[in-house]
């Protein structure tokens, strides 16, 4: 179990991490999700022991590891840039953590080829390197230098270097960002399978919300150096805690509609059945939850159609000039653009946020009592 | 008429490399050929005729103790200056690189101080060295005297003079090597050091051999070639401080070349010396491009 307890990190005036607290259960898969520059890599470096927090602490298995070096923490990390040693072959790259930990200086030197005991230890580590290389499918690359590998192959080498010893935690810093779409989907599944197979805790950094949602048990959404929300992928999607989280999570960008300044819902939503809050609010509604329905309470004119095979994206302009995005299944027969169309949405899928703070108001389906 | 794509690109290539190649041929290759031919003659500057003498000039060079001295002195000088100034340049660069993380101001001041000998005119600096090393009035021997030691005659002792010149040579090239190494160090991605730390190679010694030294490979090769050619070319300090003396104890190839050619006007003999020098430098360059270049770029 890894606990990150109220960690703060500043670079000069710039507060990069602000009072961040997270918990990753033993063997779980935690994703850190956030836009570029929000402090994900900084947090990972703090966990790895490559950097120290200005305040707060990190605990592994209940033990404060502040004073421990990176080696003593026994974490393995796959770097955003892979950080392979260009002068070593793939096999030597993977074997380096073993050589540094388990072989003596004599074993590693050319003399190690001579002494029988050293030779035994060296061939042991080589056997382990071969085994790990086979498990990530790079057995035929062992003699190459990193300069002669593709991005995807380098990523596997970096992964193998992390896997070759048995660390307590795996830290992965955007390891899939350089891969093509197909390989990325494949590696996603492979990394999750590794998490299940090794039973170790994984912390995976990404700015791709699909990656975070599909791989992780729990996702921490980081925005501007703070944890905006920490929960299961389902919680993030169904009950985003703030407007910004709602905007960040989800395949299709969520549509926001501001209510009147005097308070309450925008008039187009009056028929949906969501109790009207008293203060000024913003409604967030995901395109996939807004669908054409003959008797739907929301009316507008069909403006634009985007056919995507499995589904159809619709842009609907309502009376007040507001554009809503809706989806229909791929076999839906659209009317001609410009004609009137009715849309429906379940009240449970309407997210109500405070207009000023952006915080979620539990107005939706539970009644407006909390904010009335 | 429209040229084909291929011939257009050939024309572009010629246009780009042509001028520099012409200049090289006129200013370097043709003179080298003339010098090579002259080394087989007894031509003297100003003479109206010359005779072909075959390998005579080279035989003299091998048998004449003065010429042999110039060659061995040059090699001894290079053997001291090359490793010492590379090693010191690296040490100073490593120190300054780390110092710059803590006290950037102080580090950049030191860097300027180390670079000064590179920027300064060596002839002017030689005067300063002469004053420092003067047997009785020089600062160095005054200091030694203050400590109750009798300082030697640094520039006029036959056994010592070459080493004194070597120290000056090192002093002169450490700064340049340091600047090159600093640039090399700055180009090493910090991720590699982080990876080394996690892999258990985080101690200073392991870090150096796992990351710093291999990543500095191309820089070290370049520094070596620059320092080596510089050491073989040593001239200014010899010409200003010792004139090759005493008794040829600090005579070196380029100074001998100058003396034979421009003082004794023995153009033929001087040409033969030049060719030997040329082959030495060529060897270093060939070594760089032929063998080592492949090893340091990790392809
Ligand atoms: N050593 C440093 N000195 C000063 N500022 C730093 C340092 N390291 C990071 N920062 C700043 O901290 C912020 C967060 O950086 P970080 O690398 O953690 O972002 P990230 O979330 O990993 O982004 P990306 O997705 O682009 O990798 C950035 O604004 C960056 O400029
Ligand atoms: Mg990052």
Cα radius of gyration of chain B in angstroms = 24 Å
Largest interface: A-B, 27 and 19 residues
Note the gap between the termini of chain A. 41 Å
CATH topology heading of the largest domain in chain A: Rossmann fold
Low-confidence stretches of chain B: none
Average pLDDT for all residues of chain A: 87
| Portion of residues within helices of chain A | 25-40%
Structural class of chain B: mainly alpha
What would CATH call the class of the largest domain in chain A? Alpha Beta
Strand order of the biggest β-sheet of chain A? 6-7-8-3-9-10
CATH architecture of chain B: Orthogonal Bundle
How would you explain this protein's 3D organization?
Chain A is an alpha+beta fold and 372 residues long. Chain A has 2 domains: 2-237, Rossmann fold (3-Layer(aba) Sandwich), CATH 3.40.50.300; 252-364, Nucleic acid-binding proteins (OB fold (Dihydrolipoamide Acetyltransferase, E2P), Beta Barrel). Chain A is built from 10 helices and 19 strands. In chain A, strands 6-7-8-3-9-10 form a 6-stranded mixed beta sheet, sandwiched between helices. In chain A, helix 7 links the parallel strand 7 (169-173) and strand 8. Mean pLDDT of chain A is 87; it is low at 364-372. Chain B has 299 residues and is mainly alpha-helical. Chain B has a single domain, classed as MetI-like fold, CATH 1.10.3720.10. Helices cover 76% and strands 0% of the residues of chain B. Chain B is flat and about 75 Å long. The interface between A and B is medium-sized, with 27 and 19 residues. Adenosine-5'-triphosphate (ATP) binds at residues 11, 14, 16, 34, 36-42, 80, 207 of chain A.
